[in-house]
Amino acid sequence: MGQKAIRRERLAVIRDRVWEVLSSPDSHSLMTRERALDSLAILWESERGRVGPLLAC
């Protein structure tokens, strides 16, 4: 598996976990929700170069 595929897979795992936590906030502690938001920020920063131009449209 190439580096890009590994990176894509890791990002997908992070994204899926974040959405799992944020979609059911009553099931998770405040700290878990804060960590999920931190992970989302890291994901956003890592993908900003790819996603940023799409948001400008």
The helix-strand sequence is HH
Shape type: elongated
Largest sheet descriptor: none
What are the segments in which pLDDT stays under 50 over at least 5 consecutive residues? none
- What is the straight-line distance between the termini? 33 Å
Count of beta strands? 0
Please tally the helical runs, counting DSSP H or I stretches of 4 or more residues. Answer: 2
Helix proportion: over 70%
**Overall residue-averaged pLDDT value:** 81
Assign the structural class, choosing from mainly alpha, mainly beta, alpha/beta, alpha+beta, or little secondary structure. Answer: mainly alpha
C-alpha Rg (nearest Å): 13 Å
Strand content: under 5%
What does this structure look like?
With 57 residues, the chain is mostly helical. It has a domain of 31 residues. The chain contains two helices and no strands. Helix 1 crosses helix 2. The protein starts with a helix and ends with a helix.
